[in-house]
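Re: that chain you flagged

S.,

Sorry for the slow reply, it's been a week of failed gels. I finally had a moment to sit down with the sequence you sent. For the record, here it is as I used it:
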Amino acid sequence: MASQDVISLLRSSAVDFDFYEALYRHFHAQPELSLQESQTAAKAASLLRSLNAGYEVQTSIGGHGLVGVLKNGAGKTVLLRADMDALPVKEDTGLEYASKVTMRDNDDAVKPVMHACGHDFHVTALLAAAECLAKMKDSWSGTLIVLFQPNEERAGGAQAMVDDGLYNKIPVPDLVLGQHVMPQRAGYVGCRVGNIMSEADSFKITLYGRGGHGSMPHRTVDPVGK
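Prediction finished late last night. Pasting the structure tokens below so you have them in one place:
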């Protein structure tokens, strides 16, 4: 299909961008930490069902994960994925819809929460894509799966969904696309074969020392100074 044909098709199946901008602001202002994405998941599931487009919605997969399956005749099965969780970061953007949310994390500490990695945009974009692709059903055939993944930031949500029988609940996809927003020119999509963007890991270190009085440092063990 020529690029101009794709543009014309998208225009003919356009969604209400004012609605989705407001939805993005909602998700941004109401972030949830990993393993606690209950309200985000509930909102996504409700909106999928409200499309009345034939999506078969299943929730609570591997925690708060959910999927919507749209069967549209013979053809390939394509899975589109968005992550939902936010980070324990205090927002200082000054935006009128900035997050003021705090949550108790899994270490039992209350922390500020912010969508600092774009997952609010990912959820919004996938819901908009779900509506747009449903509107243009006459132009494609196959099976579309939209998947909303919990606990991405701690690298456990995808495996949790698989371990919870994800591929017994949905058709096995021929292609999985895990998109990520990034700062580049508006209207462009970037792709490449192989790994792309950054990867992070985390670890904990316990340092053992022995306290004492500042006047007698020789009787202490300073694990940082040593």
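What I noticed first: The radius of gyration is 22 Å.

Talk soon,
D.
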